[in-house]
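Quarterly update from the structural biology core.
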Amino acid sequence: MPIEDYSAAAQKIADFLKTLIGLGGLRLKYRITAGAGAADPAGLESREIYVELAGPDAGLLTQRGGELLRALEHVAAKMLRLENEEHDKISFDAENFKALRARELKLTAETAAERVRRTGQPYSFAPMSSRERRMLHLAFRAYDDLETASSGEGLQRFVAAYPRGYEHREAAPRQSRPAGRPSGRRR
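Predicted structure, tokenized:
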């Protein structure tokens, strides 16, 4: 179900955030932009509602790779009764976290594209959220000679980039460490 009334949708989200912030004792403020003004300048998200959160507790929202931001997006999408494929119409951000992540994904896509062109071999990214996988697929649209595909299941789903026409085989995801964890043996 598409978002038909941006004002009503924004008000629902504002009411939800007001309750969450009040009951949670969080020190946060928010700004909601809906309609054409909510569009992603980078073009990697097809958002129609953009929620910016700021304040002393904004860092809580960006911990663990922005897990809480994604949870807020999910709850807001369910409140507005959006279908799963429409969840990317709503985007929450704090401390410019998602904008920086989008830029990082775009740079990673550029680096991977150069590597695939140079070697002629596929490049597999680390597992990531469906929204980030979509951003990678969109970033690769700029390369006529390359294509992407998602593989894996659930939390292990990842994107692989291939030379156009390459015979796809089941690729393995690139290994990644959770943020803040050093590589090597644990003591």
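Confidence is low (pLDDT under 50) at residues 177-187.
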